[in-house]
Amino acid sequence: MKELNEHIVCFLCAGYFIDATTITECLHTFCKSCIVKYLQTSKYCPMCNTKIHETQPLLNLKLDRVMQDIVYKLVPGLQHSEEKRIREFYQSRGLDRVTQPSSDDTVGGDPMGLPYSTFDHSRAHYFRYDEHVSLCLEKLSSSKDKSKVVLQQKYVRCSVRAQIRHLRRVLCHRLGLSLQHVQILFDNEPLPDHMTMKQLWLSRWFGKPAPLLLHYSIKDKRR
């Protein structure tokens, strides 16, 4: 058993694998909860430092049912204690236990009723695990602009894949204006809606300290 321990113990928590999950890029395995938590602040494998994914590392994780079955067979009582822990967790919070139907390659329940879980990306925030950029949105001073509407929170943090059109929509929502009345500029130059934050940072702000400074102007509603 001692010879096998290094192959069935999680590098992150030093415990036996629970919901064993493997990184497809390097095939290292961890507990699901351990690796998901770790990848909230990193996109590299904690064991070999291989880059898992440029922006969404969770996409390259796969539940390893074979490994989990091996662990349960090798470690007496582990499956039973894990099932008991999960059952007590739900009972203590007055929640109903939900198990997903079995399928050939993803999710199912084992004979003890312990559900195998998977990553439901359809419900996840699309940009959650992207690289982020910090922005400062200042209102452009102009003698023609007589509007007193000003953004209260001028600092914004967003995905590098977000586009100028997304930023305009956020501004319009916060300022209570329609889309055609708000324009975003860099160095007095209007920015195209399709430009991403990454393109903007690399072409206009590379090498400069955060946050990236942008201006917004409000067009006269009577126009």
From TrEMBL:
Residue ranges of domain RING-type in the record: 10-49
Transmembrane spans: none
InterPro entries reported for this sequence: RAWUL (IPR032443), Znf_RING (IPR001841), Znf_RING/FYVE/PHD (IPR013083), Znf_RING_CS (IPR017907)
Record-linked Pfam families: RAWUL, zf-C3HC4_2
Keywords: Metal-binding, Nucleus, Repressor, Transcription, Transcription regulation, Zinc, Zinc-finger
Transcription in keyword set: yes
GO terms assigned for molecular function: promoter-specific chromatin binding; zinc ion binding
Keyword ATP-binding: no
Top-level taxon: Eukaryota
Annotated GO CC locations: PRC1 complex
UniProt main location, coarse: nucleus
One annotated GO biological process: negative regulation of transcription by RNA polymerase II
Subcellular location: Nucleus
PANTHER family on file: POLYCOMB GROUP RING FINGER PROTEIN 1, RING FINGER DOMAIN-CONTAINING, POLYCOMB GROUP COMPONENT
Protein name: Polycomb group RING finger protein 1
Gene: Pcgf1
